[in-house]
Amino acid sequence: MRIAHISPPSATYLSPEADQIPAGVTVEDVLVRVEVPLATDPARLTMKDLVYLDAAITAEKGGFDSIFVNTVADYGVDLIRGTVDVPVTGAGEAGIAAALDRAPTFAIVTVWPSSTQIYYDRVLAATSTAGRCTSVRFVLEESELAEHGGGAGVMAAVDTPDSPTAERVLGVARRAVADGAASIVLGCSCMSRLTPSLQAALPVPVIDPRAAGFAASVAAVRTDQAPVIPNRDTVARVIAAVDVWAELGDSVAGGWAEECGDACAIA
Q: pLDDT under 50 in the chain at which residues?
């Protein structure tokens, strides 16, 4: 069984850990061709969706058995399901489902600032779970992104359980539990390595969306689903659009860098 791990080049290190991969399963990175920064508006979120759809089209052509969109924002998942005849799972939807398997309510705790609210509003709407989400909690302020060296610095800070940022994540999670959350869903796959320490410190289940999403991606291969007949014209136009964005290269990335320091690819 081959699982396509859709990722920007800056986040391939977030591929599932070796001990999470069952025997007979392989995981291969399929890279998005354009790294779009934090999508704080609907138009940019649509751009993210399209570059993930483009990568999923590549994965289908590569003969993968399942596609894992390793982001809690579930970029492009609905578009992929309507375009590609391969099962697809998003880390966000899978993380929420795992939380609700273990508790009646959950809070999302994310390292990213409140400008990313649009991600979480969308995944809650897509999963029809807003009524069971007690809160979405943001750890960093917008101004702190630059202090961390941009998105890559933020991701590095939460990849280390004893970092000051990790301590702040714990404090925010404790407040979410005190306010009634019966479980915690981590709001970014980049926070996965905090799961053991957070679970040891908190009295409620802590859900790693990367682990939940990958497990669901494997299970999806064994689940019957209606076939999808791709629209060749749609597929060709998506590829052509991303071709144009990719050719712009640094002329676009340079402008984006002024906003968050680097690609800020995961949320």
A: 256-267
Q: Helix, strand, or coil here: 183?
A: coil
Number of domains in the chain: 2
| pLDDT of res. 267 | 47
Sign of the dihedral through C-alpha 94, 96, 98, 101: negative
Q: What is the pLDDT of residue 250?
A: 56
The beta strands (E) that lie in the chain are given as: 2-7, 26-31, 66-69, 88-90, 106-110, 133-138, 184-186, 206-207
Does the pTM of the predicted model rise above 0.90?
Answer: no
Looking at the fold, whether 122 and 194 belong to one and the same domain comes out as yes
Tell me the backbone φ, ψ of residue 115, rounded to 5 degrees. -65, -15
**pLDDT given at position 69:** 96
Q: Does residue 159 contact residue 193 with C-beta atoms inside 8 Å?
A: yes
Residue 197: its H or E element:
helix 195-201
What count of residues does the chain have?
267
What pLDDT is stored for residue 129 in this prediction? 97
Domain boundary among the residues 192, 208, 224 is at 208
- Full residue range of the structural domain in which residue 60 is found: 2-91+214-260
Residue 170 belongs to some domain of the structure: yes
Q: What tokens appear for 111 in the block?
A: 């390292």
Q: List C-alpha distances in Å: 41 to 59, 115, 118, 132, 241.
A: 27, 9, 7, 25, 20
Give the per-residue pLDDT at 11: 81
